[in-house]
Amino acid sequence: MNDITMMLCADDLILSALKEDITSEDITTNSVMPSFKLGEVDLICKQDGIIAGLPVFERVFTLLDKNTECVFFVKDGDEVKNGQKIGVVKGDIRVLLSGERTALNYLQRMSGIATYTKSVASLLEGTNTKLLDTRKTTPNMRIFEKYAVKVGGGNNHRYNLSDGILLKDNHIGAAGSVAAAVKMAKEYAPFVRKIEIEVENLDMLKEALDAGADIVMLDNMSPEDMKKAVEMAKGKAETECSGNVTKENIARLTDIGVDYISSGALTHSAPIMDLSLKNLHAV
Q1: pTM assigned to the model
Q2: CATH class of the 121-268 domain in this structure
Q3: Among 80, 253, 264, 256, residue whose Cα is nearest residue 154
Q4: Is 278 annotated as catalytic?
Q5: pLDDT, tens digit, for every residue of 192-221?
Q6: What distances in angstroms separate CA 21 from CA 25, 96, 113, one per listed residue?
Q7: How far apart are CA 120 and CA 134, in angstroms?
Q8: pLDDT for 95-128, tens place per residue?
Q9: Residue 274 in contact with residue 46, Cβ under 8 Å?
Q10: Which of 46, 90, 136, 228 is catalytic?
Q11: 3-116+271-282 sits in which CATH class?
């Protein structure tokens, strides 16, 4: 997920967010600013973190008025500090006022995810384990949230249900067994697709390996069993650890040797980063 891919898909989602906030008019702005007046406003960071989402922030304003200009003093992925002026937005004051909340909502949410992801990814430095996100994203925000994970130094798992095969407990239940689920997936999916399956114990793992799974997700297993699982899977399948992984508990997993650790917390539990538009004035 890169910024070009994100922006190609973003306009409809941003317009939907703007329509949510402005159903007919911005009655407050129109009451104090009935006609065009050129102005500018400062983008201020109010806490330390990693900035992410500047192209989305800018697009909110240019969709309202293509003549709006954003000048940024940082780029996505940069560290920013409390009190730092990181940009200026210039244009029709009515647009600056009407787009403010939507633009900041995107930037605060995405920067919060990038900041949290960076803090978790740093705990895996020096290992060969990659940090992955999940599909536990906010509806209609997935493309932005997964982009923010990348900015923060994480990696994207599959984007959606069309993007990859991941057989979880209910798929196994529907198929009847681990072996049956893997066999059916292999028969249905194109040969270029890898088959990943969730296992909850070593017996399920053995069944998955014997069936020819390409990736095994070790779900909520103890660290001791995961170490055994990594040895069992060596040379046969890649390994992914999953199950309530957060910044607070990931340290217990760093020496297990799994190929991937996935964490839904990267997107569903990251706090926003506090940012503000201040000092609006006519020019």
Answers
A1: 0.95
A2: alpha beta
A3: 264
A4: no
A5: 899 999 999 999 999 999 999 999 999 999
A6: 9, 14, 23
A7: 14
A8: 999 999 999 999 999 999 999 999 999 999 999 9
A9: yes
A10: 136
A11: alpha beta
